[in-house]
């Protein structure tokens, strides 16, 4: 999947002078809690497979759905989706069809409505703007989805720019190399607008965000409120590790490390 100019979606592209600090921030995890959508997708995928199996074989699958807590703990520890399917009772020949169902379902509008704003994300975003920091979202979600969510929560006016993916499947796949390339594009675009980026931060909740920030040579904050456990994130050696976006913003701003030298 190649990156293209269609990935870029600008909001308020021209703002402040070069001395403006920049925070690059992931969307799913730091700002959005996707756990309910992902769990409901998993349960719908299992139900769909049960229906298909009954039609084809005339008998029930021995499905034992995980609880949401069990499911999310597996996602946070990067248990592969195929293994989650197997641990839910799906036989080998039903696992690939299940994964296809999940990939098709996860971005359906009826499931997207289960996305919720992380508890302190609005306060965090307001603090970012009150501190004069430029907020640039770098996400594998489609910019249109991001913009709709921000507008629904009256936050779009606080976001300076969004860099997203053109492919609706990108966020669920969460490919590291795609995030690395997208952050590089976002950084290059800030520099082209006259902003300095050497003291910028990248905030996110997965290995894709931390590795992207590290490859770009900027400082990183890993958040444990998302889809990876603290143990997994610690292994990545981010500059900072905090629970939420608000905590990371307070840490970064209080430490005065977000200032451009
Ligand atoms: Mg994320």
Description of the structure:
This protein has 261 residues and is an alpha/beta fold. It has 2 domains: 5-34 and 117-254, Rossmann fold; 35-112. Helices cover 47% and strands 11% of the residues. The protein contains 12 helices and 9 strands. The protein has a 7-stranded mixed β-sheet with strand order 1-6-5-2-7-8-9, with helices on both faces. Helix 3 packs across helix 4 (92-105) and helix 6 (121-130) runs parallel beside helix 12 (245-254). The chain binds magnesium ion. Magnesium ion is lined by residues 26, 28-29, 204-206, 226.
How do the helices and strands follow one another from N- to C-terminus?
EEEHHHHHEHEHEHHEHEHEH
Poorly predicted runs of 5 or more residues: 1-15, 257-261
CATH class of the largest domain: Alpha Beta
- CATH-derived architecture of the largest domain: 3-Layer(aba) Sandwich
Strand composition percent: 5-15%
Number of domain units? 2
Q: What hetero molecules are in the model?
A: magnesium ion
Helix content: 40-55%
DSSP summary, beta strand count: 9
Structural class: alpha/beta
What Rg do the Cα atoms give? Answer: 19 Å
Q: Per the principal axes of the C-alpha atoms, what is the gross shape?
A: elongated
* Sheet having the most strands: 7 strands, mixed
Question: What is the end-to-end distance?
Answer: 37 Å
CATH superfamily caption of the largest domain: HAD superfamily/HAD-like
Largest sheet, spatial ordering of strands: 1-6-5-2-7-8-9
Number of discrete helical segments? 12
- Average the pLDDT over all residues and give the rounded result: 89
**If you consult CATH, what is the topology of the largest domain?**
Rossmann fold
